[in-house]
Structures are given as structure tokens and as C-alpha cells.
Amino acid sequence: MTIWRLLHTPPSTGAWNMAADEAILEHIYRGEAKPTLRLYSWNPPCLSLGHAQSFKDVDVERLHAQGWEVVRRVTGGRAILHTDELTYSVTGPAEDPILAGGVLESYNRLAQALLYAVRELSVPVEMKEHEGGHTQQNLNPVCFEVPSTYEITVNGKKLIGSAQARKKEGVLQHGSLPLSGDLTRICDALVFADESARQHAKDRLLARATTVQSVLNAEVPWSRAADAFVRGFETELGIQFERGEMSASELKRTEELVSEKYAHPSWTKRI
Q: What is the pLDDT of residue 250?
């Protein structure tokens, strides 16, 4: 049985959430923390950009008018609006048996746990084995419109969006399970040629992505979804969790990364 740490952290800003994931990974690299599953949420809602996504995709005026924040991830992919969701992050060494073998191999293993977790919520999900990378998709600023390899779908619509970074410190994968709310809100924080194009993007998104509440016609509390994730990782990956807290050193490093990187324009607006 593999021993991992389980963290539930309180709803936090986008900069803090991204900094926490990186701080945890650094501590695992130094042997100061176990591989970790962190379950969390965001306050206020936050638009996150992929590592290589242009900041020009963001309609800053509209974003601020909504009271939302923006942050840049270390992982790839396109924009996600984090609100009304359960977010997970997995951090561990690249040689961990669950994370070993490269992006697709580890992504597939973790996807099995995600699949189990969402089925625990009575959602009839399946795994998207492969989706071609068409030019139009690659240019699309919205992450949830495009299912990719080993992502979780229901009735052909994307439900969980995940992304992974493999760094010298180890592996970080995080992803989002939208529990409720209007998925098209993200389009109110992105740049479009005109309002007709914005509406078209909203219509396309609703046709290609969904939430747990939309599927079940019932609300699933964050705590219930979190419990399902724990059971999924335990059952599919043979993990035994130790419920823990971030160490004082991890929290200190998180605050440093917030001010030096994730809340700083030199990172957020670098592209």
C-alpha cells in the first residue's frame, strides 16, 4: 500500500493556489513531504491561463467588472474559470510508480481514479481515449471546449479538465471538476471580435462541456465530491492517505511564490 498525504485547503486566491502546488512539489523533491493529493477551491473566482497562453486572450476590463482574478498556471492547456468546482492537484516524484513513465502513461493511471470518483457520484462518465489536435482547437482560448487524451467525458461532453507538468522537482497534475453554475461565464472574461462571436463561443461551449449538476439535475456538495475523489484514488491506485496539513515551511514558501511569481505581472503577463 502506497502512503500519500491528503490535504484539504480552504478556498483561496488563484495566486495562492498555484503557489501552494509548486511549494508542495519543491518540498517533495527535497524529501520533506510525501506525495500529495490536495483538494481545494477558489475565492474569489479566478481565470487561469495555460503556461504558454497569451495574456491577450484576457478581457481585463470585463474580468475586473465581474470581480474575478487571473493567474497563470505552470501546466499547459487553455483558459479555465475556476468557480463552483472541486479542484485537485497531485504532486509527487517522477519515479513514484503511479507517476512514472511519462505524461500519457501517468495521466492514464490518474484518469482511472478520476473515472471511479465521478462514477461514485452517479455520473455516467467515460474516458476520452484520443482527440486529434486540430488547428482550430489549438487556437481556442477555452480549455473545457476541447476533450483531449484520457480526459473524462459524459455523453460526449467534457467534464474534467486536467493538465500535467513534469519538472526536475517531480510531477504536478491538477484539474477541475465543475460541480454547478454556468460554464459560459468564462466567455465574459475573454476577448472576442464582437458580441456575436462571444455568443457563438458560449453556444459551442455548452454543446461540448457540462457540469455535474447539469448531468444529474441535482446539486452535489463539494465535500461529497471530495470524498469520492479520495475513494477513487484509494481504490484504483492502491493509495492509503494520511490526512495532513501544509507544513510551516510549505506555507512560508507559498507566500514567497505568491509575491515573487504568481501574483506578479512578470509571470502573469509574460506572454
A: 98
Cis check for the bond before 44: say yes or no (omega within 30 of 0): yes
CA–CA–CA angle 194, 161, 96 (5° rounding): 150
143 is catalytic: yes
- Find out whether 146 and 79 touch, Cβ atoms under 8 Å: no
Give pLDDT tens digits for 232-255: 999 999 999 999 999 999 999 999
Whether the model clears a pTM of 0.85, i.e. scores above it, the answer is yes
Cα angle for residues 102, 104, 108 (degrees, 5° grid): 120
Does 267 score more than 90 pLDDT? yes
The residue from 90, 98, 117, 143 that is catalytic is 143
Q: Are 187 and 155 in contact (CB under 8 A)?
A: no
- Ramachandran area for residue 171 (φ above 0: left; ψ -120 to 50: alpha; else beta): beta
Question: Which has the closest alpha carbon to 253: 13, 40, 26?
Answer: 26
**Given this structure, which CATH class describes domain 2-261?**
alpha beta
- In whole angstroms, what is the distance from residue 241 CA to residue 235 CA? 11
Q: Is the CB of residue 24 less than 8 Å from the CB of residue 91?
A: yes
